[in-house]
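**User:** My hope is that you can spare some time for a protein that puzzles me. I have put the entry right below:
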Amino acid sequence: MKFGKEFVSQMVPEWQEAYMDYNSLKLILKKVLRSRKKKASSTPMGTAEGSTLKRRVSLYRAFSGLTSRQRGSLRKKEDEEILVGEEGEEGQWQTRFLMPYDEGGEFEVAFFRSLDDEFNKVNCFYKKKVGEVVEEAEELSRQMDALIALRLKVDNPEVDIGGSDLASNGISSVSAVHPTSGRKTGGEDMDVINEVEMSDEEEMEDDEERGSKESETDDRKANRGTVDIQGFKPLQLEVLDHIRINVIPETPVSTIKSIFQQNYLSFSKNELRKVEEQMRQAFSEFYQKLRLLKSYCFLNQLAFSKIMKKYDKVCSRNASKVYLNMVDNSYLGSTDEVTRLVERVEATFIKHFANGNRRKGMKTLRPKARREKHRSTYFLGLLSGGSIALVVAIIVLMHARNILESDGRVLYMENIFPLYSLFGFVVLHLIMFSANIFFWRRYRVNYPFIFGFKQGSEIGYRQLFLLSSGIAILALAGVVSTLDMELDPRTKSFVALKELVPLGLVVVLLLIIFCPFNVIYRSSRYFLLLCLSHCLLAPLYKVTLPDFFLADQLTSQVQAFRSLEFYVCYYGWGDFKKRSHNCLDSHVFKSFYFVVAIIPYWIRSLQCVRRLIEEKDGMQGLNALKYFSTIVAVAMRTSYDLKAGMTSKILAIVSSVVATAVGTYWDIVIDWGLLQRNSKNPWLRDKLLVSNQSVYFVAMVLNVVLRLAWMQSVLGIRGVPFVHRTALTAIVACLEIIRRGIWNFFRLENEHLNNVGKYRAFKSVPLPFNYERDYTRSS
């Protein structure tokens, strides 16, 4: 793989604009090369041969280790090709091109101008991010002070706060300044991360070994330019007097506590366990941030090295040495703060959260990425092929037995078809979501970060498609067995068995979802159930993107919920052996028919209200009104379905038109961020992941058309020839699922681009303690 493609593949997606634009610099060098080739072709042959030979010799001199100059020798000023230095108050690096212009020289000047802009962009971004992690390290140090004090207080409840010196828990603080630039490279920002507690082994060291280590440390610090050294000082429990537990209303209990209780410390073991879990998450997220920042620094340095060597090769010059020396001496190449923070975070996490077990601690800090297994691909092909074969078998069986013309066709469509259609809705939704994951990966949408998946635990599109194929195999096999037992005279006596097949499949599906064992993607199933519980208990839980994203999926599965309701009625109240029921005549069934359709939209409206209260965002209030209009439309349409009438029809049409118009506008403008007038891409947005702009216009048209499909019941389309009413309802429900699948891709694309615009590549982890404003750590 060429470096340009490898460089792009290794980028942090949210920081993509902050990396060096390697491709644009390559384009400038291509212009230089084309201009030189054009000049060579226009000169006489002898001159061209001479210039070619000269270029070969210069390349040999520039890159051969045998003939290169000594590394430490100084070049004469008249031989220098470029001069790089800092200019301006902000310390921007600028390059001066000192050689006379040849053919294409203006492109060389443009190259160095663009190169300087890219380097200054990278250098400033890196400096800003390092400053942020240093501040975050200081806050983690303060949090660790409080955690250690809380541990001691919980383990020794009789210890008085504020009067105990912890000799065994000394803290070192070192402040160093870079000798050349005066830049601070370490210090009080990592008091606790440097060494929070003195280990038992350190206490057992003799004075001679300790003195020799201290002298070596002093010499190392002196060479580094140390200006301020503080010795070990005792950590005091009085810090507990100046902190409060940071209770974030994320659960029903914490929501109630935030209203009725103060955030005081109870010094209980349960409280300590929760605090330690929060600190583990904070350290893990902070460590990932440091790793990516370190990777950012390395990749950009490598990119500058590659582009300068390419410049030397194209232009037959030797300017890379001077420029790369500048890169090494700049903040990007010389600072070691990130490396030292990585080492100290590892040491602190292993000591305090892994009981000194390095393997265990590093396994938590560096979780392994999920590996694609060949057996997943094998079973995917096997099950998908089997499902296609079963579909063909059903079609052949229906044609051979002339089922469509049989007397029991209507009875089958009204009773058995709604039972099996549930699996069709689930399978179609899984297929659409697996396609979403495939395209998210293709266009580098960071969906694991957006959804908050634990690293290495996210499910891939192959696994999701494999799961949908397995469910399809079970459902289609059930359909074939039901038809075969019904039409074969030898199995007509198994009436109860063939009627119980759909119920058995539902039970199997529920057992898989709630299976507690580590099989069939347990982490993904647990994540789904967790988000589902948050949706059902809205607005008691803090609303996150996975929660409202799942609630949006539920709004497209209304017909599936009605199928589940029909299961209860068919097997609980009716005579399933005779395929008879009185569900539509039951007032209870009709009431739940209303409620089941409204619940998903009600959940979303409650989530919007919760976000409106917490975030003070007026758009969430408008979003809640949008879902309320949909609730009214669904209620009017359901009323018309159960009891047709002119008044009900008019109310259903009006409410459906309003809800469809509002929902379509919100999908395209708010959720997708399209239809922007002043965008550089007409009527789209400035940033697009899909290069073919027609895809967005097609998606917008499909969104409008598929949203209108749900109005078929209020526009008088009660049925079409050769299509039963229940089949038409299922088709409309499938169209809504397809619309939701299209919506999913562009919704997450817009979310990803918003994160890119804000360089937001990490989730914010709430810290457990909140310090008083007037309290500062004693130095």
About this structure: Residues 374-757 form one domain. The chain has a mean pLDDT of 79. Residues 105-155 form the longest helix (51 residues). The CA atoms of residues 251 and 541 lie 5 Å apart.
